[in-house]
Amino acid sequence: MDIKFINIGxxxxxxxxxxxxxxxxxxxxxxxxxxxxxxAGRLVDATYGRRTRAVIIMDSDHVVLSAVQxxxxxxxxxxxxxxxxxxx
Length: 88
Prior knowledge:
Blueprint: E1 5-9, E2 12-15, E3 19-23, H1 28-40, E4 43-46, E5 54-58, E6 63-66, H2 70-79
Parallel strand pairs: 4-6
Antiparallel strand pairs: 1-2, 3-5, 5-6
């Protein structure tokens, strides 16, 4: 099993194999999911203070907030065109 990572904006990456869903944060149920994750300490805010545009639901029950559009994250997941740079 290959480990794939995708860029979710501002140099942040997540494991593509662990993603369950990528959704928009506009609906009330998603806002409740975000608040529940924040209360439980399972929220990862990767927006760098910008507006949340995508909510990434992980299989570990973690919720990741991204400032990148959901379509962009999904395209990066499907196309895997952006190489991930790692520092030694």
